[in-house]
Amino acid sequence: MTSLSVLDLHAQPLPAPDAPAERHLRALPTPRVAPRRAPRLVHGVIALAGLAGIVCAQLGLSVVISEGAYRMSALQAESTSLARAEQSVAEELAVLSSPQHVAVAGAELGMLAGQPSQFLTLASTSTAGGPDALHMQVPAVDGFGMYVPNSLLTAQPQVAASVAHVQAAAIEPYPGMLLPAGASAPAIEATAPAAVQAVEPTTVAPGTLLPAPGQE
Amino acid sequence: MSVAASAKRSSDRVRTVVVAILTFALLAAFVVRLADIQLVRAEALNAEADGRRGVTQTIFGTRGPIVDANGTVLAESVDRWDLTISPRYTRDLQPGIDRVDETLTVGDALVQIGAITGQDPVDLQAKILAELERDPDSDYLLLVDGLDVAQFEAVRDLGLPYVYLRLNPQRVYPAGSVAGNLVGFMGADEPLAGVERSEDECLAAEDGARVFDRGADGTPIPGSMTTRPAVDGGSVQLTIDADVQFQMQQLTQQYTSQLRARSGTSIVMRTDGSIVAVAESATVDPNDPTASDARDRGSRAFTAAYEPGSIFKAFSFAAMLDLGIITPRDELSVPWTYTAPGVRVRDALSHEVKQWTAAGILVNSSNSGMVRLAEPMSTADYYEYLDRFGFGETTAVDFAGEQPVPLRNPANLDAQTQLNVLFGQGIAATPIQVASAYQALANGGVHLPARLIAGCTDAEGEVTVPEVGEGERVVSDTTARQTLEVLENVVTDYGYDTFPIEGYRIAAKTGTAQMAYEDGSGYDPNRMMISVAGVFPVDDPQFVVLTMYDSPQTIRTSGGAIPAFHDMVNLLIRHFDIPPSTTEQPEIPLEWTADQP
């Protein structure tokens, strides 16, 4: 307390001397103050070691975190690459499962359209056949290429080969046909049936029943 | 208190005040500076900081796929890359400087790129030289576009420092031209046609971005990355069945070339209004739209209105039945012409006076008979029926570019047109409107909105089904059934043995419509639209089939379209395993004899 405040205290009006409250003042025993000990070396060592420990832990933690970042980066790269592989395969699959590919591949294997289902009628205990034959059924691919084209399939080696084969068969050279220089015209008797076959698909009368693909 | 002490106190106070003022001034300066940096210039500074060490990557969202009713993919987005090059930095790579084991010249690098992309390295070199000729400081040249994953990885593994591979997602259509007319296609950066265009809101993706600070080797610094994820587009499912669509397209194309027609259009619709197939020839392969003529790139079924002709008689017949002014057994003597003041109607072929019933008139497709039957019906009443059948407005599909073909005000029709509309002349409709009207006959007289979109599933898996509105009763159940029973006789008694399929009850109506000149100056005598529309099986209708051919050359009457209709119905029966009809076709007399007892 400064001298200023002492003065201020004195400026306060004093309590009335004849206050009824009676105070019992007595001296407290002197508190026992523990004697101040000199700092020991071990405390300093512990403090410093703790500090060093914190620094090391911090360092280790950030090393681990940044290592994790590298690992994450590598895993993300791997995930991207796998996603690309998956997409590429899915894309190929979608093209292969397109109706055109299924039709061309089926025809190439010599497959025919299945027979219509037969139905059992309980009332008459007989079977009822399905519908009659189609009036016109031509293969998915003929000399002009695919009826329902798919430009993605032209990149498919197998389909491309199949289409090229059919087209080549459709324009098989006949005697008297103009050929590119170097190619030789075939003998008449060998190619006559082929020529008839080649012309057939384009000149059928409406409603003619044609062989289903792959029958010949 | 001494004077000296008082002076010292006053100087102390001044010093305190000065220090306080200085402290506050400093504090205020810091606060102002802080506010300036954190608030006023925050954006500019952040941008500058990001620019210095931050990297922003665009995360491309994937545009949603379009699939058919069974999930077959008709359109999807795939990652493709553009190979761009910095022409002025092209140089030979040296061991020691670059990560190569031996010198790799630009020529060798181009040979390797050419081997990967299948291009002639000399062409690539010529492109680079031409670009350098144009601008020696050129820093950008698009060398090859559309690299797929395998090509991208091969080029990336070459490690050429002057090559940059830019992601450029593209749209592919794995089924090619199957439903190409409906799916539509994309332009450089916007949808141009079909479902791609009309459902763009569902399909479009939202690109995201990834911002981070990067270390010297490109690894993101931990904790610095903020990501705004991309939102993938939704998936649109159609009501189309890709297998049926393929077979219908194959048949339509076959018959179009056999008939040497200008074009062919076929529609298959379920009784509930959902569209199974819309086949057209010629059509478009959306992978390569420019290979088709501009007029073949859309869907004529929705966009090409025409005068439908005789297949329209089914609707006027149904209207008359529903109004109660005729029954199928009404007996009439029908000459081949009909004349009244100012009007004249003729049948397609001249014939002697026939004793046909009302059913016989429809089956034999007599124009003069129809006009005679319809004498008690007002045109306004008839147009009300047409309106309920769905004519005069776009179908609920609302296809991109679909024509509504508004109905004319019946009060403004001249006397001749009032009669012509009874057999489908002087009135235009799109093929989809005609098919949709036959749907009402198939569905017991209730017209349901045509549907092409089954639903849109967004990235979170939430499904939205387009609102199509309620169905509307057009004619009574009895009327619809009676009309179909009369139309069954067209299949069995019209004189074409290529028409019926034994065991199945099929109702159909043929039409040979005249085509107007493009400039509207009357009918073109050389153009005919032959068509057949039908419903089967009559005892439990499931499908509506409409097939039509524009200007056939080999067979110019509706008989040309009959085998096509037969084959389409046949394929549907096989595909969906439809059992034969269990009921017999009822006997409805088509002719009558006057000397009956």
Descriptive keywords:
heterodimer, A: 216 residues, mainly alpha, two-stranded antiparallel sheet, elongated, B: 597 residues, alpha+beta, Penicillin-binding protein 2a (Domain 2), Beta-lactamase, 5-stranded antiparallel β-sheet, 18 helices, 20% strand
Q: Secondary-structure element sequence of chain A? A: HHHEEEEHH
N-to-C terminal Cα separation of chain A, in Å? 123 Å
CATH superfamily of one domain in chain B: DD-peptidase/beta-lactamase superfamily
Q: Biggest interface and its residues per chain?
A: A-B, 48 and 58 residues
Q: Would you identify the regions of chain A where 5 or more consecutive residues have pLDDT less than 50?
A: 187-204
- For this structure, the quaternary state is heterodimer
DSSP summary: helix tally of chain A: 5
- Strand percent estimate of chain A: under 5%
Description:
The complex is a heterodimer of chains A (216) and B (597). Chain A is mainly alpha-helical and 216 residues long. Among the domains of chain A are: 42-97; 99-113 and 136-177 and 186-216, no CATH class. Helix content of chain A is 47%, strand content 5%. Chain A is built from 5 helices and 4 strands, in the order αααββββαα. Chain A has helices at residues 3-11, 41-96, 99-108, 157-170, 188-199; strands spanning 119-121, 126-128, 141-142, 145-146. In chain A, the strands form 2 sheets. In chain A, strands 1-2 form a two-stranded antiparallel ribbon. In chain A, strands 3-4 form a two-stranded antiparallel ribbon. Chain A is elongated, with a radius of gyration of 51 Å. In chain B, the strands form 7 sheets. Chain B has a 6-stranded mixed sheet, with no helix packed on it. In chain B, strands 12-11-23-22-21 form a 5-stranded antiparallel sheet, with helices on both faces. Among the domains of chain B are: 54-77 and 171-237, Penicillin-binding protein 2a (Domain 2), CATH 3.90.1310.10; 80-148 and 157-168, no CATH class; 294-538, DD-peptidase/beta-lactamase superfamily (Beta-lactamase, 3-Layer(aba) Sandwich), CATH 3.40.710.10. The longest helix of chain B has 38 residues, at 3-40. The model of chain B has no long low-confidence stretch (mean pLDDT 89). Chain B is an alpha+beta fold and 597 residues long. Chain B is elongated and about 150 Å long. Chains A and B meet through α2 and α3 of A and β3, α5, α9 and α18 of B.
